[in-house]
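Q: What would this chain look like folded?
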Amino acid sequence: MSITRPRRQGRPRHAPPSDPGASAREQILDAAGALFVERGIASTSTRVIAERVGIRQASLYYHFATKEEILAELLATSVRPSLQMVERIQALVPERATPAAALYAVAAMDVRTLCRTPYNIGTLYLLPEVRAERFDAFRAERGRLQESYGTLGAQAAAEGVARSVPAERIGELLIQLVEVVIQIRRSREPEAADTDVIASSCLRLCGLGESEVAAARDESRVLLSRFD
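A: My prediction, written as structure tokens:
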């Protein structure tokens, strides 16, 4: 007489997933983002990330080989959408958009992207670990975004500013101004008004007057509606 053995089930999770609708990869990124911000990169291991998700460490390695690979993906999500958007907007200058409106639109979209990154990942930008060679791709993408800010800022700048400040310096200042929203998130939840304040400040930094800022703001609304 043969005995039918029950089919062996896969190994259960240690704990239920935080978001049952998310994929395992998304849950790993979510858990890692929280841990990196809470505990720092050095104090967060793949074992701790796996435990937070509720999976075994071996299952995590199916998606990511190292915690640095996880961090690289998280950093990319904080800059890549803005970089893709700025390239699309720059293609409209000057035939279908003024540089000032394009700069406002880019700054506004970048602020919104940084507001949506889980656990305020931007706080990790200046950590020593992110200077390592393995994060060169992230720094290169952020560098391209900064260059785009510089180009648009120089094009939009009032005559005096354009002559006295090189485009690369304008880019440095503009990207730092936009990223102030990272610090805002450390103390409170950003509001819609913060986006306008920061984007408008970018134009003022370039020497534009209030009437020019208002005109660029109005034009940018039409510009951004093309990408909704």
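Residues 1-17 have pLDDT under 50 and may be disordered.
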